Amino acid sequence: MKSWIRQHALALRDAAMRIVSMPGSFIFNVTVIALALMLPVAGLTLLENLKPVSRELAVEPEISVFMQSDLPRERAQALATDIRRVAQTNGVVIKLDFIARENALAAMKERAGLSDIVTTLGNNPLPDAYVIKLANAEDAAGARRIEKLADAITRLPGVETVQLDSAWVKRLAAVLQLASNVLLLLAATLCGVVVAVVFNTIRLQVVTQSEEIDVARLLGATDAFVSRPFYYTGALLGFGAGIVALLGVLLALSLLNVSVSELAQLYGSAFTLTPLEPAAIALLLAASTGLGLLGAALSVRRALTRSA
Length: 308
What we know:
By secondary structure, the chain is of the alpha+beta class. 74% of the residues lie in helices and 8% in strands.
């Protein structure tokens, strides 16, 4: 066990010495690989920031039912029975919530920038309303049933306006899913770029040190012994590029957050772009290190097979 650790420690030291002897080449290759990694890392960071926003939105479609402003409260509350009857007739499962006009006004006052406007209105201009949360909207038939339900509720006495909401939320979820798939394909393509860059870098090192490798083999060195420093060089390339890519994305977030915060304040939100969680960062560093190791392994195996 001690011999195995010592061999790997010597290989790591050898790889570090090669990097120190050619710092310009190492920095250039790390920069090239980091640029390839920055795009998927930035895309992943953006998607992770958008997921909490999409989860806060109601994915289920809703129908907002607004009563006539002069409709008595008792009649408005009694309308719940008629709405449930119409829903049952159309085969739609609903969850019904009554929103009193006083509660709607209080909620509007809590929104940033609207308190003064609501105060100047004097009397409460908002009507009583119902919010109907719907199910069975996953297919075209369910969507048609919901549209028929909205039309039927419109004809109920005392109803002023019926609005079918949240269709755009499903579109947002579809867009996010599409973005995830595109990001996955992009990441797979750029991972191939990373492997190719490391492959070419290690190949050049093997060619440069081919005479040293031949001498080491004549002295009894195994292929594993010869390969270890190159493996560590590839891994260090990937690890260094991962760190540079994450730092680049972090810098971009800090620059973008100035504009994002100003835009969010206009909508009464405190939304800001945040970096990835430590677990995700560790996973990305492990992935970049693994890609560097894979590129080095493929290059060394090909070079040693040819020179055997």
